[in-house]
Structure formats: C-alpha cells, structure tokens
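Here's what a typical entry looks like (Heptosyltransferase I):
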Amino acid sequence: MRANILSNSLSSICILRLSAIGDVCHAVSAVQAIQRAHPQAKITWVIGKVEAMLLAGLPGVELVVFDKKQGKAALKALKAKFKGQKFDVLLHMQVALRANLVARVIPAKQKIGFDKGRSKELHSLFINKRIAAQQSPHVLEGFQNFARAIGAECAKPSWNMPVTDDHKASAKALLPEGKIFVISPAASKAERNWLPERYAALADHAMKSGFNVVITGGPTELEQNLAADIQKHTQSALLNLVGKTDLKTLLCILDQADVVLAPDTGPAHMAVTVNTPVIGLYAHSNPKRTGPYLYQDYVVEVYHKNLVAQKGKTADELPWGTRVKGRELMSQIEVADVIAMFDRVVKEQELNS
C-alpha cells in the first residue's frame, strides 16, 4: 500500500539511513523538509557511526548511532534503546539487508519503505507502506518521496549543515588566501579513482588560472598514497590536507572552496550541501542517479558509452542504476575534457576575478 499521510498530528518520526556519507547528505535535505512540515514532531535518526560524526548537532534531530562493527550487540542495544516507545512512523530509507534487520527492531505504527521497483534484500518484509514509484530518480529525489509521503513539500533541496564557528575557523586557518580549487581524489574503491597524473594536470592548470590547489581526504592508506602520487606528478605547490581534518572541518573547507573536483565519493555531495560547484568524474555509475545533485551539468562521464558497449542498451532501456564494470574505465576520461569543464565552471561561476 502506498503511503499518503497528510496529517499534522505526527508527534514522533524515525528516520533509518545508516550510510554512506553522500547518501546521508542527500537525506538531510529531506529530513529538513519534514521538519518544516511537522515542526511539532520529535525526529530520531538511526545512523552509522562515521556518518554521525558529520551530522552531530543536526538541528532538531536526535541521532542514534548504530555501529555495524558490533553486529548483534548493536541490534540488541538499539532494541533496548527503543523499549517502551512506538514511533508514529518509520521512514526506512535503505534497502540493504543490515538496514532491514535494524528496521525490524524499531517499533513504529507505520513503516514506510521504497517502492517495489527498488526493493531488494527482503526490504518488503520489513515495511507495511511504500513511497510512490518514480521514473529514473536521483538518489536524493528518492529520499524526497519519503518526505512527500508524510505531507512535506520538496522543491529545490536546501541544507542546514551542523558546523560551529570553531570548525569554520579551523578550516580558514588551514587554507591559503585567494581562490581555492579542492581536489578530493579518492572514492571508496580504487577503480573509481581518476589517474594521479591527470589530477596533477588539473592542479597545474588551476594554478596557472590563479587558484590555490588543495588535496583533501581521509587517513586511509589508499588516500594517502593517491595524494602522494598526485604530488609527484604535479609541477605546482599543492596543499595536502589528506588525513588532517575531521569531517566537519572538511565540510567547512569545501564550503570555503570555489570549485571541487571529485569522482563518485562522499565529499562531492558534502560540497553540494554548501553550494560549492562540483566537477564530478563518473565511469561506473549513472551520474543522473548518483552525481552531485545541483551540479549535474558539470559532470564529465564515460558511463553512458560504456553501458552501451557492455550491455548493448542505453540507460533508459535497462534497470535504473545499472552499473558498468572494468578497472580501467576511469582512464577513458581525458584531461582535455576535464580542463574544458573546469574553464566552463570558472566562467559560469564568475571566478575569473
């Protein structure tokens, strides 16, 4: 049964979206639309441990951390946390089996999940209502339909991200004066990363265009090594902040940046929440589904041609979200195309001065 709860009488709403960084950034805009529609409701968000570090202090929302590394103990703790409660509605925004098991222990009168077309991993067994089906939606638009299901209006998304003046000051202290071009080069899988010498070529071009170039990322070995490789290939003096910031300070760096370059990775979507233009690099997944939402016109992609080459059909003829495979796909993205996009962004965003 499709959800359609237009009542203003909701007093308690639970959101379930555990991961990942990009997805919870998409979900924030929907949650804040819900807050505008139901200002009287208490909102609880069950969320992953890392993601909670970014969203800690989200206005008007209680974050309940589910640490997947604790396995069954985490489920037991969550069940104890909610003992004696019953939410008016659970918005179950994740189809992964782990999230479905979490939904099972969250007491709610109604449990709203995805439409049949996007249900998988037994998702249908853990819900009793569904959002409306959508034609080729972006992930963010899917989350907006959860908000609409309980009477919220969703137009162009907006965000109020939880950072403090201290986070802003920390970011400012790390950054040089002048225009900032941030390269966030690492995705969760190495095959989704562009080549280090090509990132370096963009860094050199940006420096010649009057930008300071900053590399950001987390503390993992993959990210550290990729940043070091970029530095080896560049002729410019880059500021390497990989592993040197927490998520909130990184968000403030992205906020203070003028342009961001990134593959399919969380910081690209973090940048969108603070309205910083993003040049997205895509090969394996459809940028119309997972690209930087406000800046999809700035994507450089080889996804669609590879989809046709591998499947013999276009995205419109295949299940929405079909991925393509191959370790070398990102190498098909040419430096000249990304430089051309960089120059276009600089012109359209009036960053020449």
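The chain has a mean pLDDT of 96.

More examples are in the samples folder.
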